[in-house]
Amino acid sequence: MTTTSQGRYSPAPGAAPLGRMLLAQTGLETRMLLRNGEQLLLTVVIPTVLLVLFSAVDVVDTSGPGKRVDFLAPGLLALAVLSTAFTGQAIATGFERRYGVLKRLGASPLPRWALLTAKTGCVLVTEVLQVALLSVIALALGWSPHGDPFSVAALLVLGTAAFSGLGLLMAGTLRAEATLAAANLVFVLLLLAGGVVVPLEKFPAAVRSALELLPISALSDGLRSVLQHGSSLPLGDLGVLAVWAVLGLAAAARFFRWE
Amino acid sequence: MEAEPAVEVVGLVKRYGRKTAVDGLDLSVGRAAVTAVLGPNGAGKTTTIETCEGYRRPDAGTVRVLGLDPVADAARLRPRVGVMLQSGGVYAGARAVEMLQHTAKLHARPLDVDTLVERLGLGSCGRTAYRRLSGGQQQRLALAMAVVGRPELVFLDEPTAGLDPQARRATWDLVRDLRADGVTVVLTTHAMEEAEQLADQVAIVDGGRVIAQGSPAELVRSGDGAEDTQEALRFDGRPGLDLGALLKALPDGTAAAELTPGSYRIRGPLDPQLLATVAAWCAQVGVLPDRLTVERRSLEDVFLELTGRELRS
């Protein structure tokens, strides 16, 4: 019998206060994201490069009058939300599930809803950084945004909810490798066909009316109508995002498997 | 040991599709003691432990952990129970000490992280990302995460699998300290030596049931019964020796057999006289006994007798 422990390990169980757990978990999730090179490429480098490249070079005919950056900046803000809330979150969560991180946290005092809240907090923190970075670059390129910030915030929040639901649905049902492939594929497809850099007017009318129902199209179109054209609250786009958010989050809540 | 066991499993049944992983398992775990759940791969150890941890719902039977239902009362149990999974459980990009500190932050009165890191020899790899840690370092980190919250009860699923002897020793010492300080420890293992070294109680599991339970000493004494079968004298010699003369010289109740050509075993009450008799017989038949040993039955023998000797997939 060992006597060296002197009561060091005597049971003294208890959960930390909820606020402290949430803060710790959000901080950890955010550090994990910012430390991941592939993730940074997706969330920071790609939107930035696209913004600079397409503003400087007339690769894509952005249609209509005005500076290219006024068309591009809202689309790339939408892409930033897509990359963080959907692609990045899906891949990270998929691998956390695969490596038993979600399982192990499920045995910790942290409630599951608090884990998801922390994930949302991490996504929002990242988005704030992305929006700040892209805005600074766009302004340097001569961007002149219009509209009221409240409408922009409403679009970004609903877009985040819609993409988070879909991302978590994918991460919680598919294998991690399948999530990795599918989330990247969806990212590229939505980048090309969601009005991010290619105006939807370039597509045939029939295809276009289907593409307009995509969450990325609603987000980029909504942001563009506020920031480029100074419209007030774009209710149609907000409605599309709200439907995606409800469907995505409900399906994720129903089908998500923790192991 | 208190009246109410720390863990009480009665008639547990758990199926995955058509496969029955646990088939009517009973287990009672005493408080402030170390209980080893010992069994071959696929015996149902992990399923049993994970049901106690609240990860699985029983298909039949009842599970009580610290008097509570691990699924229905999960929120109340989680702060009180430490869990070490068989593998994984850590962000691939998290540093070892960072993850341990995080786990500590989820608890009200955690252990001092630095002391625990030093104790388990994780200091040198503290800033290394989890995916770059060796298997043994990952195991020790998972163990540290299970105990850092100062739980009443810890479940350790194969805590020393893949550890080198020093790390295994460190793990054993920590388990002993936990017990000395009143923590209940339930661990699974297929290492007999581990169960013998650490456990107050051993439950041998096979085919989804507990087929034997008791202290290591009780289990070694049980098995095929009679006291005299616990010990044997073994030696190697020329194959095909005639054992008839030897048997006549030995007392009643002694058995002698040639197990494999040239390998002999005498079973019976061992005493110096018996050894002298065997040695005299060896001199008579002109054999120098090679590797003459007195063998005692180990937990491993009991285990193999109970679970069979064939390899399982």
Task: Tell me what the structure shows.
The complex is a heterodimer of chains A (259) and B (313). Chain A is mainly α and 259 residues long. Chain A has one domain. Chain A has helices spanning 18-35, 37-56, 68-98, 101-106, 112-140, 149-173, 176-193, 205-211, 215-227, 235-255. In chain A, α2 runs parallel beside α5. The longest helix of chain A has 31 residues, at 68-98. Chain B has two domains: 7-221, P-loop containing nucleotide triphosphate hydrolases (Rossmann fold, 3-Layer(aba) Sandwich); 227-296, Alpha-Beta Plaits. Chain B is elongated, with a radius of gyration of 24 Å. In chain B, β1 and β2 (19-29) form a beta hairpin. The mean pLDDT of chain B is 90. Chain B has eleven helices and 13 strands. In chain B, strands 5-6-7-3-8-9 form a six-stranded mixed sheet, sandwiched between helices. A four-stranded antiparallel sheet of chain B has the order 11-12-10-13, with no helix packed on it. In chain B, strands 2-1-4 form a three-stranded antiparallel sheet, covered by helices on one side. Chain B has 313 residues and is of the alpha/beta class. Chain B has helices at residues 45-52, 74-77, 96-105, 113-119, 135-147, 165-180, 192-198, 216-221, 244-249, 272-285, 299-307; strands at 7-16, 19-29, 34-38, 60-65, 81-84, 153-157, 184-189, 201-206, 209-214, 231-236, 255-260, 263-267, 290-296. Classes of the chains: A mainly alpha (259), B alpha/beta (313). Chains A and B meet through α1 and α4 of A and α3 and α6 of B.
Summarize the structure.
The complex is a heterodimer of chains A (259) and B (313). In chain A, 73% of the residues lie in helices and 0% in strands. With 259 residues, chain A is mainly alpha-helical.
